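If you are new to this repository, start here. Below is one unmodified record pulled from the training split, so you can see the exact layout before writing a loader.
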Amino acid sequence: MSLPGRIIIPGLINTHAHLAQSLLRGLAEDLPLHSWLCDRIWPLEAAYGGQGDTADGYIAARTTIAEMLLSGTTCFLEAMLTHGSGIDNVVRAVSEMGIRACLGKLVKFVETNPALKIKDARDKDLSSMSIESLLSAHATFHGGSNDRIHVWAACGTPRGAPLASFAEVGRACRAHDIGITMHCAEAPRDLPIFREVYEGRTPMQFCRDAELAGHKTILAHMCHLDLEADIPILQESNTTVAHNPTSNLKLASGIANIPRMLEAGVNVALGTDGAPCNNSYDMLREMHLASIVHKGAMLDATVVGAQEALEMATICGAKALGLDQDIGSIEVGKKADLVVLDVAKVWAAPWDPDATWGMDPVSLVVGCCTGRDVTHVMIDGSFMVEDGSLCSINEDEIILAARTAIRGIQQRSGVKVNSDLPDGHKT
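And here is the target side for that same chain:
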């Protein structure tokens, strides 16, 4: 195959994504995190329904995966697979579409801190979120589709459930070699909550004592830490941080101190989060933001460069998932998960692959490319995307199904979006 004017990079690895939320793109704009969750996202997700080809969880998963593939993601970690999405729906979508997936099955407990006034409208069946349900899903689905599907545990932000309950999850996962992902220290009030509810502990002291920290644990966001106490525990325990810069900026959550983490040797990977808090699952866009936001935040142009951002989205993500022996870099003996980018365009000029003085290709990829520059995507040696189109999936059918599904979800949820706009501008 001749690919003039192209750059080949390892398949991108998204370590924090919500498959269900592609259907909610644009429906929770300009809201603080609490309102974003309680008034929009959770009520809308609670209204997911349907079966078979019309199941909202299946349609959402296909929509998200299609966007991921077209923009160069070859592997992802689902951050919180809820009962409404249906793990069987998601496994079916992953199997059909050929992507590599780690599926975080939600494990949840009844919260014990009513003063927080956080009610998750999705909490209809706590038995579906038990450790037993996780172990059952792992036994049923883990290793499926030629080992492209791995089942992980997913926990929500600790805001009141007993530490001992989280420790049960940690022990069960370690006993069965199940990876753990958890939202952690995302909002400004999370650090005070940890200290108040969990006997003065910081976020990482909690994770250490709850037996959650360690290899194949990925903690998302991590914007509000006690840096002196928490960063050493992160490093010593080999726990990964999933950095989500777009989501954290859009929801005004804050900016994680990634430069300090990298300096200490913490493994940092990259994630997009979901469509309502990012508007995109494009990891190339996420890399660009990760490579510039910390320069402004730290007033230091030398921190978190293009090479580090690319590694976050590739080999560091693979290490986080325990898959770095197979994916994350282009090496002999590894699986052929590859992405081809077309840089023979005016926005890349005057870059010339034959020139000795030219722009660093890594800086070109991170600083200039977006998912729309992806022409080919290969997973395990097979093309999933060729010439910018999905190989075996009808993109028009995915778009139509998504448009149909969200109309029903909105009607069932009763959530009013843009209700304060003139009639001609409502969606």
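Two things worth knowing about this chain: The chain has one domain: 6-413. The longest helix spans residues 395-413.
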